[in-house]
Amino acid sequence: MNGIYSCIIAVSMYSKIPMPAVEWTEERMRHVMCFFPFVGLAQGGVLGLWFYLGLDVFALNPLTAALITAAIPLLVTGGIHMDGFMDTMDAIHSYGEREKKLEILKDPHLGAFAVISLAVYLLLYLGVVNEYVQYLSGCEGDFRFLLYVVPGLVFVMERAFSGLSVVTFPSAKKDGLAAGFARTAQKRTDRIVLAVWLVICLAVAAALGWRAGGLAGAAVLSLGLGLGQLLVFWWYYRMSLKEFGGITGDLAGCFLQVCELAGLAVLAALLKTGILGGHVI
C-alpha cells in the first residue's frame, strides 16, 4: 500500500496531474524516486496524443504543432524542473564562492542570467522539436506512429537518471527536497528499481529501432539515447560537486532539463541521418 502512496506523492510533486491528497510520512517517501519515471510516461503519453491530434486529426501546420509540442512538457510538469534550471544558471554565473551559490539557489528572485538562459534554452528546444515535427509530418504509415512514442523514452530515462542522482550523489545541503528524499529513501532498493527502468527503456528503444531500421536501427537508437543521457549525467555529477559540493533539488531539475534537450536533439539527429528508416531530409 505504501508503494501506491509513494507513486501518488511522486506524480503530485513533479507534475500538474491531479492526484488525491495523501500524508507525506517517512514510510511513504522511501520509494518516491522509484515512481518518478511514471511522470515521464505520462508526459510521453500526452505528447504522443498531441502528435496524433495535431498532425493527423487537425492537420496543423508543422510549425504550429511544434510550438505547442514545446509547451507540453512545461504544462505537464508545471515548470518545476525549469525553475531549478533557472536558479542553477543564476548561481553558476554568479562566479561566487560555494556558499554564495547555494544562497542564490534558495533565493526566490530571478536574476538576469536566469532569464537569458531560459530564452536560449527555449529557442534551442523549439529548434530541436521543430526538426522532429517537420520530419514527422513527412512520414507515413507505421513508422510515423512509432515516432509518436519515441520521445517518451527520453522523458522516462532522464527521470530514472535524476532519481539515481538523488540516491547516489552526495547532497550539498542537509535540508531541502533532494536531501529529504535521499535521507528517507531505501537507497539500495531505489537504485535497483531505477536501473531496471533504464534497462527497460533501452530494451524498448532497441525494439523500436529494430522495427524501424533493423539491427543498425536497434543499436543506434538504444546506444544513442543511452550514451547521450549518460554524458549529461556525467557532466551533472562533475558540475554539482565542483560548483556546489553536491546536489540539490534545483540541480536535479537543471539536469533533467538539459538531459531532455540533449535526448530530443539526439533523436532529431538520428532521424536526419536516415539510420532509423524513413527518409533523409
What does this structure look like?
Helix 6 (80-92) packs across helix 8 (112-137). This protein has 281 residues and is mostly helical. It has twelve helices and no strands. Helices cover 80% and strands 0% of the residues. The longest helix has 58 residues, at 187-244.
> Helical stretch count?
12
State the helical fraction: over 70%
- What is the residue-averaged pLDDT? 90
- The N- to C-terminal Cα distance equals 50 Å
Structural class: mainly alpha
Low-confidence stretches: none
| Extended strand count | 0
| Rg over CA atoms | 19 Å
Global shape: globular
**Biggest sheet, in brief?**
none
- Helix and strand pattern: HHHHHHHHHHHH
- What amount of the residues lies in strands? under 5%
SSE diagram, text form:
Layout: H1 2-14, H2 26-29, H3 32-35, H4 37-57, H5 62-77, H6 80-92, H7 98-106, H8 112-137, H9 141-168, H10 177-184, H11 187-244, H12 249-273
Helix pairs in contact: 4-5, 4-9, 5-8, 6-7, 6-8, 6-12, 8-12, 9-11, 9-12, 11-12
